[in-house]
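To fix ideas, we reproduce below a protein record of this kind.
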Amino acid sequence: MTDLAPSRHRPRGRGYPSTPVRVSVGVVGPLVAGLVLAGCGPSPVDMVEYPVTTTPSRMAGEELQRSAEPEESCAPVPAPAESAGSGVREVASVDPAEATVEVPRSPERILALGAGAVDVACALGLQDLVVGTSGLPRDADVYLPPPLVGLPDLAITGDSGAEGAAAAARELDPDLIVLADSLDPDPSVVRALAEVAPTVVYDARSLNWTESTEAIADAYGRPRAGGDLLLDVIDRARFTADATTPSDTWVSLVSVSDADGIVVQQPDTLGSLMLEAVGAGRPPAQRTRDGRRIEPAPESPAVGDELDGDVIFAVVGGSDRSEQSAREAFATARWTDLAAVGARRMFVVDRAVWEGSGPVAARAVLDDIRSSINGIAPDG
């Protein structure tokens, strides 16, 4: 017999809407209608259909949720090139100097400089065409396969030194370079890389990951397949919402870091956007819309600790001290006093995934949500 998830009465009239907000994860064009999900609270029958489960695995003395299977993340068969012939075609680039770039119709040696570029190549089954990477998160091997993570890391960004970037790229002899935009790009770096191979620059902001997925897939010669990847994420988000009734749950999303301790996770990260996509309820102090925080109404009184919820996802990772920092944070009185912690409704998730970019990371986040949102962590 399984126990049912504990419910919490939520008084209305606090300055917040009494019905769930319709949300999306930023897909543009015809995908917007498909990705916007509306939620409604479950009936008692729903609560029987979605019983609490226990989720094993441990990290820093707490539960580590890892739904991602690195060996199964990439498509096993490459998506076919969608433009006939062996010539070139024009694609869009966010490089201020070159709005469009001529690229091979079917690139064979891809230099993927940015986590999004690597993620999309993996999702399209083009991992064997990638000759080098840059910008992968520290623990990328928790969701990407070893052969892809083990490729040469050029550590090239839009503001790297031009001469060194070009020399490193030339060693790998790419026929296409896809580069993540930086906050303050150095135009000379892009120009230097463009001398090595056609270079497409994409918007690397997490808030725009769906548009970036489309742009990267287009550069790879698979624009329709890129759209299919996003449709698959939409389907998975709908399935997650239907299977777990997240709109009835206050889902707290926090980040544990060396510098800041435990804080509410930024709203423009992939994990927060995926919670929006499935219509998850959020504690009043954490509510977001389109990747931006919604400020509580002035007349709304505080409701407990801003970190608390019916369930807590704690994002951990990214440094040598991550596990030690988590141990210290999880031992504080503030943390142990949270209701969700006392009810064993807290799960640790990987920063590399929940702050990732691209359809592979998005699918892994949705898997984490689906497998844990109604869960109880085992005693330990």
Summary: Residues 284 and 303 are 7 Å apart (CA to CA). Residues 223-244 form the longest helix (22 residues). The two ends are 21 Å apart (CA to CA). The longest strand covers residues 251-257.
